[in-house]
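[09:14] KT: can someone run the structure on this one? pasting the chain below
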Amino acid sequence: MSGTICYLSLRSVSRSLASLENCTPTDFGQVPKGNIFVGYSYLSADIPNTSTRQNLNGWEASLEGKVLPFLGIVADGSGHYGTTQFFVCPAVVGGSCRGAVNGNFYNALFGPRVSASFHGIRPFAHVLVGAGSDQRRQL
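[09:31] RB: done, structure tokens below
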């Protein structure tokens, strides 16, 4: 069942991309009313007292709506998933150490973005604030 859902969503994405191929803007100097970004994300971190890096794979998505040609409001979200191998030892004498943890990490961020066009390139800067949440399950 989940394979069917994935197949349908991939088909929808490919149709959307195919329809974007046929778009030809008449004026390249126009500023879009917004931006959408969806992509793969890789999270890697050093954990204290371990010799290996911990890695999580996931997604990143961003939606921007323009308020002025140079100012937009951004909503940004991400999710990372995976298994980490680090030990959490309780302070209680005789307690056991835990090993692998299967976890998810989510972020939701919001804020303003400023941008300007320079010779066909549109750099930007933004300040985003938000919250993060993690879920852990012992394996």
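[09:33] KT: thanks! The chain has one domain: 34-138.
[09:34] RB: yep, looked fine to me
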